[in-house]
Amino acid sequence: MISDKMTAALNGQINAEMYSAYLYLSMSAFAAYKGWDGIAGWLSAQAMEEMTHAHKLYGYVNSQGGRVLLDAIEKPPAEFESARDIFAKTLEHEKKVTASINALVNLAIQEKDHATNAFLQWFVTEQVEEEEHAGTILARFELAGDHVGALFMLDRELGARRVGASSGE
Q1: N or C: less crowded end of the chain, CB within 10 Å?
Q2: Fold classification of 4-72+80-158 (topology level)
Q3: How far is the C-alpha of 41 from the C-alpha of 56, rounded, in Å?
Q4: Distance in angstroms (rounded) separating the CA atoms of residues 86 and 80
């Protein structure tokens, strides 16, 4: 059984993961509108992965006797300056998610909730990978600069990602 405080914090993380999915879906819609089909596909897969994270938390809260209470999901931005901007914002967002996961781990340690701490270690590892992937893609866009050919190449490469292809699934 988890505490009310831990349950509330995990419910907040469920909302954060669902916002992440919503954000990546918004980014995907923008990329599709711009004709960057590979980037749109990568972001769509990322959105689905974030929903899987929310479901993982949802299942854990239920399994521990807590009550899942869903809250409104904030509207994500709909406009981006460029493909590079999308991945700069992706990296920035993943860093925020990492901080949120770390705060959950700290709360679990503070409450001596070893089961939740153990459960959250999967998310800790996942966030290392999420930041690494976003950072690598951003670095490639920065290296490409304004070269249109490089944008086409990166778009095609990112389009090769399939749902479930990351370590998260």
Answers
A1: N
A2: Ferritin (1.20.1260)
A3: 23
A4: 6
pLDDT tens per residue, range 56-83: 999 999 999 999 999 999 999 999 999 9
Q: How many other C-beta atoms can be found within 10 angstroms of the C-beta atom of residue 161? A: 19
Domain boundaries, the chain: 4-72+80-158
Sign of CA dihedral 57, 135, 129, 160: positive
Q: What sections of 71-147 are H helices per DSSP? A: 83-110, 114-144
- Residues present in the chain in total: 169
What's the first-to-final CA gap in the chain, in angstroms?
27
CB atoms within 10 A of CB 15: 18
What's the pLDDT tens digit per position in 119-138?
999 999 999 999 999 999 99
Q: Which amino acid is at 65?
A: G
Closest CA to 18 of 61, 62, 70: 70
